[in-house]
Amino acid sequence: MSDNVKIEVPKSLHDKIEKHIANSKFESVADYILYAARICLLEEERYEASIPEEEKTKIKTKLRDLGYIE
What we know:
mainly alpha
């Protein structure tokens, strides 16, 4: 049994990625999407880690006061 799930992307995006990865190290559109998602997550984690805890607390308080989070 596989731990993978299917994700749908618009055909226009698929086609654009397919052209972009032609003659590259990526063997498939799925490989490229996995690579791009990992890079995005890594950048987000680095950014979040760069915010001091005190600032994170202030942001969470503001979001809670505005009703965006509980």
